[in-house]
Every structure is written in C-alpha cells, then in structure tokens.
Amino acid sequence: MRRALRIAFGISAALTGLLLLVRVVIFLVLMTYYRPDLEHAYNDTLALRDVRNLGILREWYWWNLYLLVASVISTGLLGGAIFLLRRPQRQKP
Predict the structure, then answer these.
(1) Is the dihedral of CA 70, 72, 75, 77 positive or negative?
(2) What is the C-alpha separation between 27 and 31, in angstroms, rounded?
(3) How many domains, the chain?
(4) Between 75 and which of 9, 12, 81, 86 could a Cys-Cys bridge form, CB atoms 3.0 to 4.6 Å apart?
(5) pTM here?
C-alpha cells in the first residue's frame, strides 16, 4: 500500500508541476496583450474578453487554477498519508 501511495504521490506532484507550467505560459501570453496603466487597463480587459482565441485562453487560465488547487490539495493529502503510514524507526540500545 505504501508503494502505491508513493506512486500516486509522484504522479500527483508531476501533474501539479505540469499545471503550474501551463499556467505560467498562459499568463505570459495573456500579459503580452494587457497594459496595466490607468488609461488602457479596462479597455485591454474588454479586448481580451472579446477576442475569441484570447477568451479561450482566459477560460483555460481560470480552469487551470481550479485544477491546480485540487492537485495541490491531493498532493498534500497523499504526502500526509505517506507520512502517517511510515514505518517507525527502531531504537538502538
């Protein structure tokens, strides 16, 4: 059972890393189309919503967030299970 937990933990950690990488790439693509100054911020946000391809990227960005949070929670739970099911250390006399 411990081996299965470790394999599941490794898969979950890899998935978390992949989701984080995808989120950073989408963030960099979206930030090329956004100017954060007062005169352009609102209009750029509306333009990002209205452009079809960028709108899909925005949706992927938010769904990626939900998947990333779920993946981090599952990785933490698996890590906690591995910690709790470890073998106790033998004490040497």
Answers:
(1) negative
(2) 6
(3) 1
(4) 12
(5) 0.72
